[in-house]
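Here is one chain, start to finish.
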Amino acid sequence: MKTWYREIAFSTSRRSEVVDLTQQVMSATRESGIRNGILVLQLPHATAALAMNEGEEGLKQDILEKLDDLIPVRGRYQHDRIDTNAHAHLKSVLLGSSVVLPVVDGSIVRGTWQNILVVEQDGPRKRRLALFLMGE
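Its structure:
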């Protein structure tokens, strides 16, 4: 069994935004040379999250607005006593920071409308997405 690791570095430009990394992840997966296996995506950040969903602009905005409805930027958060980004941490907890996907015949198995999305909540920031692939 072969293993492969790569990081995709990227920057966000706004306090909250959704960044679609699908094409970069698909390209990197092809470059790995692994035809069949498991791809683990890990976003090693506490104030951004990883999601699989449609990359349509209206939906991206809906995601951000609904997260703000559920967890407003300003609230009575204990963490804000030392920092002002408790909302970003809480949103990240709800969405999560990793995804595991099968790779078959060199392609990531995903639904037609499933893109790999980073949901930034504490930008602008320099971020990275870790890709770990194992298989044959």
